[in-house]
Amino acid sequence: MTDDLFAKLGQQSTRPRKSTDRTQELQTGAALTATTRKSLRAGQYIRRQFTFRPGQLDDIATLARRLKVPQADLVRWLVDRGLQAIQRDGETPESIEVSTTRLAPPG
Amino acid sequence: MTQVWAVTSKKGGVGKTTTAGILAQGLAQKLLNGTGQPAGSVVILDLDPQGNQADYFGVRQHVWHPTRNPGGKCVSDLLLGRVRDLREILVKLDRLEDGLSRPNLYLIPASRRLEDELEDLFLQDFNNARRAARGDGNGYVPMNQLLAHLLEPLEGVASYIIIDTPPQLPILKSAVYHYADSIVVPTKAEDMSVIGCIQHTDDLATHIKGGAKARLRYILPTMIDGRVASHKQILSDLVNAYTMERMAAPIPSAVAVSQSSGEGGRTLLEYARPDHPARRAYQHLIDRVYKENIR
After folding, report:
1. What is the sign of the dihedral through the CA atoms of B82, B118, B8 and A88?
2. Which of B40, B87, B207 comes nearest A10 by C-beta?
3. Minimal Cα–Cα distance from A102 to chain B, Å?
4. How far is B122 from chain A (nearest CA, A)?
């Protein structure tokens, strides 16, 4: 004898799940730019210079390549997610303690 | 109402999988009401890419494998929206043909594909969030609401959902904390494990301040040896830190706990004798959880 979980679930109507198709999303911006001959980003961004650790840049480059999105888009999105996490979940930035050891002078 | 419990810890090897499996099975047995007639069902949601819940219950043959079972089931199909009906992903754990009666216990299994596809999940959220930011976010579900959204069909249908988590849950952590009602944190009585436990509960507290629904319900000391003085000291420290109300009965160190799954995919509740100390300790936890009235 089994509980009729499957039967109960079968009584519910199935509802469409959100699409995971990313092709359209990635093509929309490029298509608009090609059509209008004008950068969609003009006036929307401000240039600032920040420094990153080499490993972070490697990770961003690798991930952006894999996700087929521009690195800048990825970085902006990561910043948004980080800010959201602080505001919504109360997460705080991780601090990394770097300890250095001085070599004792010879002799 | 469906009660959702998650077994979480940042430390590996503290007994999360065993605890989640036994807790789920114990609650399912409670729902049999001693008559064998199920009064409700329990679903285990495995979010650990190691997929050991399937091994623990001896149903590995149903789980996705790149060569042996490419058509098998994996929770990543659910998370990435590849299944439209939960029945496509649920595995019945009843193994009556092997003499293991589990009539009201189900598993949403995980496999290593979950680990491989976490980036796809990340990308899905990335694209959906971008659409939402452009005002085209029809149906966008934020990551922290993902589990509640996907498992909504189980609400009121399953009596309990037990979530087994891996030590690191980078993308799904907030989803678990926003979906689960209660959290059980197993910890070994070792300094490093206790430090990990404290870090973990601090992290949970931060999420709760940020609006997560989950509440720390039990600290579960595992693999305790009553003869070891440091274990007694650490148990005492845990009680002081978390209060007695949040402490579950310590699970004694026992060969039977790790040996049971190797014996034909039998759980501790099926393998150890009823008066086995570890089984009795887990039964104590099951009884307390069963008596909880969360909502």
Report:
1. negative
2. B87
3. 28
4. 9
Contacts of B38 (CB under 8 A, 6+ apart): A1, A2, A3, B28, B31, B32, B103, B104
Spans of chain B, pLDDT less than 50: 294-295
CA B215 to chain centre: 15
Instruction: Verify whether the Cβ–Cβ distance A89 to B126 is below 8 Å.
Output: no
How are strands ordered across the β-sheet holding B91-92? B91-92, B105-108, B42-46, B160-164, B3-7, B182-188, B215-222
Is 0.90 topped by the overall pTM? no
* Contact flag A88-B210 (C-beta cutoff 8 Å): yes
pLDDT digits (tens, 9 = 90+) for B194-247: 888 998 999 999 889 888 999 999 999 999 988 888 898 899 889 988 999 999
Q: Given an 8 Å threshold on Cβ–Cβ distance, is B94 in contact with A91?
A: no
CB–CB contact B210 A90 (8 Å): yes
ipTM value: 0.70
Kindly give the pairing relationship between strand B182-188 and strand B215-222. parallel
Q: Does A75 touch chain B (CB under 8 A)?
A: no
Report the SS3 class of residue B89.
coil
Q: Where are the alpha helices (DSSP H) in B134-228?
A: 146-150, 173-179, 191-209
Neighboring chain A residues of B141 at a CB cutoff of 8 Å:
18
Tell me how far apart the alpha carbons of residues A19 and B161 are, in angstroms, rounded to a whole number.
Answer: 26
Distance from CA of B252 to the nearest CA of A (A): 33
Distance CA B285, CA A30 (A): 57
Per-residue confidence (pLDDT) for residue A43, from 0 to 100:
59
Is residue A100 within 8 angstroms of chain B, CB to CB? no
Give me the tens of pLDDT residue by residue for chain A, a chain 107 residues long: 556 788 888 877 555 444 444 444 444 445 545 555 555 555 567 888 888 888 899 999 998 888 878 888 889 888 888 888 778 767 666 655 555 555 666 65
Nearest-by-Cβ selection for A12 from B144, B153, B209: B153
Cα gap B209→B130, rounded to integer Å: 26
Measured CA angle at A8 (ends A5, A9), to 5 deg: 85
Q: How far apart are CA B202 and CA B255, in angstroms?
A: 32
Compute the nearest-CA separation of A107 from chain B (Å): 38
What is the distance between the alpha carbons of residues B39 and A48, in angstroms, rounded to a whole number? 62
